[in-house]
Design a protein that fits this description.
By secondary structure, this protein is of the alpha/beta class. It has two domains: 4-225 and 440-464, Rossmann fold (3-Layer(aba) Sandwich); 228-435, Rossmann fold. It has 16 helices and 18 strands. It has helices at 22-33, 68-87, 98-115, 135-141, 159-162, 168-173, 186-200, 228-238, 242-250, 269-282, 304-324, 341-350, 365-373, 405-417, 420-436, 439-450; strands at 4-10, 36-45, 52-56, 59-66, 124-128, 147-151, 180-183, 203-206, 209-212, 215-221, 255-260, 290-295, 332-335, 353-356, 381-385, 398-400, 454-455, 463-464. A ten-stranded mixed sheet has the order 3-4-2-1-5-6-7-10-9-8, sandwiched between helices. Strands 13-12-11-14-15-16 form a six-stranded parallel sheet, sandwiched between helices. Helix 8 (228-238) crosses helix 12 (341-350) and helix 9 packs across helix 12 (341-350). The protein starts with a strand and ends with a strand.
């Protein structure tokens, strides 16, 4: 069996800690079932040095360092100040410089040079996310002829938004050098194909395959999932932990609403807090009966837009607690510290409602983890943004428009008031949907499509027939 080479910005090196990173959760089954090389950034900033390697069982973890200029231009610059906002439909937040764009391509070439000597002829390469759009061509320029797929974990917007990106033709053409390009939803996949049709005059050779500059590129939707049984068991055990019991005791018999999000403007936390504030105003009977716990680890704090959102959220928390709080009750607990996967599983299980309401999200695995964690006899209610990728599968959640503050507030009341029979019925449907696209199925479907028989129609150009 060929070795699987996974490329991502950060590498989930085993360190004995239970983490909740979305990529690590999603690819766990692949890591357990086949020989793998996981390659990416070490998380360290310093002079370029030899790659660091660690092997555990069937997986080799190899990382490289980035210099300060690499980090500033590639990571903080083009990846997170240009690609992240445009792919999340936020053109107003783009901070484009040609220096950062140049650094983005330079670092991709650096990663390619570090990875190429490690490759075997029959390796299958799976590249993850927006950091490495140019990597396939960079590897090809070095003589790599391996099969190589790309998966975008975040949204892919309509062509007119992508076309607002300076030099979009150069960047997006890089995607045509992959054998397979995968997305979270059918909408994202359609947007991808539409871009190449509108901007490059690409044609479909058959469904799920477009021809760009003579190269056939397969594409499709592969919704990311979780290991449902594993997370359900983890939540059951975690519910008996001292940590969860301590949190439960601190509630004083109140029900808990939970939110778990990175500190990012795409998560819609200011709108969510506005809706919660309106809920407390419009439905006063719930005051002192519920507590909202929002866990929000900080991220990218040295980027201006992230610092701004942190300040805005802090003001909202202070206002809500100052207006509605009592000596014996804090309406909103806001925590910036990360918690491990076991702790989060226990908190999700004990929660009456989960608020998963991003303004735009590729998938959002917290929604699926909340469903997996619930007791089917007395399940909690998922309140889910219709703009999350998960909403395409989890249609039996209480779907909300996070921009509609009053409607969102009413949805919280509806979720809290929902009869047991309705909660059970919704949970059965949601659990079935989560199981239908679990992590093992996700990786298996993508790799099966990537490994489909290939033909070669133009020299050394890779060509894949869609399925």
């Amino acid at each position: 069996m060929p070795r699987l080479v996974i490329v991502s910005n950060r590498v989930g090196i085993p360190d004995g800690k239970a983490r909740a990173g979305g990529l690590e959760v999603a690819i766990r089954s692949a890591l357990e079932q086949m020989e793998c090389l996981w390659f990416g950034w070490s998380g360290k900033i310093g002079p370029h040095a030899e790659a660091q390697t660690l092997t555990r069982k069937n997986v080799t973890y190899t990382t490289v360092d980035l210099e300060q200029a690499d980090f500033d231009e590639f990571y903080n610059g083009f990846a997170n100040s240009v690609l992240w906002p445009v792919l999340h439909y936020r053109l107003d937040l783009i901070e484009f410089t040609r220096r950062d764009q140049s650094g983005y391509f330079r670092v991709n070439e650096y990663f390619a040079r570090q990875l190429a000597p490690l490759l075997r002829p029959d390796d299958v390469i799976w590249v993850h996310d927006y950091h490495f759009i140019p990597l396939a061509q960079a590897l090809s320029d070095l003589g790599c002829r391996n099969r190589i797929g790309f998966f975008l974990h975040i949204p892919f917007p309509p062509p007119e938004l992508i076309a607002a990106l300076p030099n979009h033709e150069r960047l997006l053409t890089q995607l045509s050098h992959y054998d397979l390009v995968g997305f979270q939803t059918e909408r994202d996949a359609v947007n991808f194909a539409s871009y190449f049709e509108n901007e490059r005059g690409a044609l479909h050779s058959h469904p799920g395959t477009i021809v760009v500059d003579g190269r056939e590129v397969a594409y499709g939707a592969f919704p990311v999932g979780i290991d449902v049984a594993d997370f359900s068991q983890l939540a059951q055990k975690a519910a008996e932990s001292d940590f969860v019991k301590e949190v439960t005791d601190s509630l004083g018999g109140r029900s808990m609403i939970i939110g778990v999000d990175r500190l990012d403007y795409s998560k819609g936390l200011p709108m969510r807090f506005d809706a919660y504030e309106m809920f407390l105003k419009n439905f006063p009977d719930w005051r002192q009966k519920i507590t909202y716990l929002q866990i929000t680890p900080r991220s990218r704090a040295d980027i201006a837009n992230y610092a701004d959102i942190g300040r805005q959220i802090g003001q909202s928390v202070a206002r809500i607690n100052g207006t509605y709080g009592e000596v014996t009750w804090t309406p909103l607990r806001y925590v910036n510290r990360a918690h491990n996967r076991r702790q989060l599983a226990g908190l999700l299980k004990m929660s009456r409602i989960a608020l998963v309401t991003p303004l735009r999200d590729g998938m959002n695995l917290v929604a699926k983890e909340f469903v997996a964690a619930q007791d089917p006899d007395d399940p909690g209610v998922l309140v889910l943004s219709r703009f999350a990728g998960a909403a395409h599968e989890l249609r039996d959640a209480v779907l909300v428009n996070p921009y509609d503050t009053e409607g969102f507030a009413a949805a919280i009341d509806r979720a809290l008031s929902m009869p047991l029979d309705e909660r059970r019925g919704r949970h059965r449907a949601l659990y079935k949907a989560v199981c239908a696209s679990d992590s093992e199925g996700w990786a298996g479907k993508f790799l099966s499509r990537l490994n489909a028989p290939a033909r070669n129609s133009r020299g050394d150009v890779r060509v894949v027939a869609g399925t």
